[in-house]
């Protein structure tokens, strides 16, 4: 198995010559607060920033079901006119559109690069093995974890690249400082059961009850659908002032809000979890992550350094970790420093060159800016 390195000797194109067509769910005019839409928009924004708007064409697939024939014609024209194609489908899009992508790749002799969002692909192709042969024909497949690389390599993939999640954040940004009393905890995610808000609420409420005082507070942020509003209301019922739902955040406000807290609780048990962007945002705000040992979290959170890991689905395990944190303020301060330093590895100017290298595009990024991020 070969994991392609950004340093591989490959033919380079200058950024001024390349035309890229990116096909993915940009969410139309919606606020776009799920990971698929946010990451797709971020990739588009960064490609346009580095290559120029006129060099990057975007085809939004969010409304594919309402006008499939028109959208297929649009995608075909994108392949015809492009020198490079990036695809970012989720499960349904991969299953239905991969045959078209492969056919047009052959027709127009255009390289196709797949950016996988989340950690779902190995399990998905286990249930849809006919996709394996087609995926192996793509010019590169970018995944967010080494677990995924290992799983896919075992299926004969030799076009794999590691592409972690990333964010664009400024050198001068709000950073968490000190240790609160009570400990200031935050949960930021979509309000769905699989993301674990119930575990966070139960652990904090139980810990406060055991100590007979408010030793930690918990604020929850994130969009909630009508279907889950009653579920969330039930979780918050009778919890007191220490636990509160604060609504959804705009992407622009995330770092400033997170910097007000001491740690992020991330108790996910979401089947499609990969490398969540909220972990990068927490690090960029200078706060460690208290995460379940689910899926790839152990690759993203270094236990005892940039955060703490607890047994997935075990409220008592989370309580013990939080209790330890309350009584080890010096360790928490060290984790805040380590989290801030770790953020630099996931800045767009560090991560993006790996994607561009796979596409034989040579772009000079702001190296001096990256060095200043620490």
TrEMBL record:
Q: Which organism is it from?
A: Litchfieldella anticariensis (strain DSM 16096 / CECT 5854 / CIP 108499 / LMG 22089 / FP35) (Halomonas anticariensis)
Q: Which Gene3D superfamilies match?
A: Glycogen Phosphorylase B
Organism superkingdom: Bacteria
What is an example of a Pfam family matching this protein? Glycos_transf_1
Q: Kindly provide the name given to this protein in its UniProt entry.
A: Glycosyl transferase family 1 domain-containing protein
Which parts of the sequence belong to the Glycosyl transferase family domain? 181-341
